[in-house]
């Protein structure tokens, strides 16, 4: 409801600004003898509105007070000293300049509220999202939720559980040498071979996007994880061989580390990831 109200106020302010501009242009063009005079005051009204847009309504009100005081003094001078008659011309800009300021402030405030609400929703969506938007894999949040359940099952039924972590060797160097399209293709290839190298009851996660890191949650012991790692390396060799004739070929190499779940050594999912990452250092 609040977002809808802000949207209506923003649209209303935008429409009123168009109407105010239309009325002011018609008034300015109606009398060729006062054309330059009206153009000057129209520009002053626009200038105050622009300043209000980039600052605050308080600044706009102060500028309008100064304008009204200055314009009122000018009108009194022309009436008393020069003997001019007070007409609609004398009151129009006293009315329209504050209108421009008020409409601009209304549009600005509503736009800022919409932006704040959008930022809040974006952050909330990011914090609740359980899927990686680029690979459609489960992300770190989903990993922590799932692992808590799997760890409890492992404790209760004595099921071996191993976390296999892998990432691309020399990723940052590759980023500087090849294009974004090739990087995305590399991430896709590794995701594909990871998905096809595990069993249906195992799970694959994208643990990090900055330096792409995959996590494979395997219902097996450490020896079974070694079999999966050998399978991954064999598949990667096949991909590198098939790409050998490619003009823009680059070779992918993986670093892998696995750590079997132990309630005493890895009591939490984050501790488990840290232990598995540590194993990556031994894969050179």
TrEMBL record:
The keyword Nuclease does not apply. InterPro entries: GGDEF_dom, Nucleotide_cyclase, Rev_trsase/Diguanyl_cyclase. The chain crosses the membrane at residues 12-29, 35-54, 91-108. It holds the Pfam family GGDEF. Keywords: Membrane, Transmembrane, Transmembrane helix. Residues 129-280 form the GGDEF domain. It comes from the Bacteria. This is Diguanylate cyclase, GGDEF domain.
